Amino acid sequence: MTSRADARGWGPGWPQNNASKCTTITGAKSGVALTVRREIAPIVKFCVDEVERREYLYDHGPMDPTDDWSFVNRPIRGTSIPSNHSWGLAVDMDATLYPQGQRKKRPPQWVDDVWRKYRFDNGAPWANPDPMHYEFNGTPNDAKFLVNSLAAHALDQTPAPMPPSAPAPKPDPVPAPSLEDIMHVVTLAFPNRTERWF
Fold first, then answer.
1. Mind listing the pLDDT tens digit for each residue in 19-40?
2. What span, in angstroms and rounded, lies between the C-alpha atoms of 131 and 88?
3. Is 131 exposed, middle or buried, given 0-12, 13-18 or 19+ CB atoms closer than 10 A?
4. Pairing mode, if any, of strands 130-136 and 90-92?
5. Global pTM?
6. Residue 106 carries which DSSP code?
7. Cβ-proximal residues to 101 (8 Å cutoff; 6+ apart), any chain
8. Chain centroid to CA 97: how far?
């Protein structure tokens, strides 16, 4: 289990409400929304988008239950110890598919590897297993370093590092050309044609 966030420089957690220090990110592909600490928001967004680019979606459409959870000001269930959720440093992904307390069902290993590469521990190996749970295990300075690293990759247009287990992303489908695009190409190809073709 990750050490408490206050011991890593994040300040107090529950019962202090850290909602004002959080922001909401939205997954580019599925639209899954997660409220997390501002300092780690770009890292969470990157992990969600990378996992989904590799065809593992967190939001499965209109019939999918709302089971992707993030910031909530509470203690760890059954204790008076602040949960890392109360700092906005933890997310639960596909909670109904991978419920707490069981070891048999968990996300694919490569999904865990992507999150781990960016300093998130998964709760699957805990004494009370929590395979849906990912929590940032670094300090505020670690978060700043990772965000700067991701920004540098974006600026020089090189892909950010992925674990070897992550499958290659499927290429984005080529969008069908619009009628205007087709007409533009036809006009360029046949500039002297005057009659309408369709």
1. 999 999 999 999 999 999 999 9
2. 18
3. buried
4. antiparallel
5. 0.84
6. -
7. 128, 129, 130
8. 17
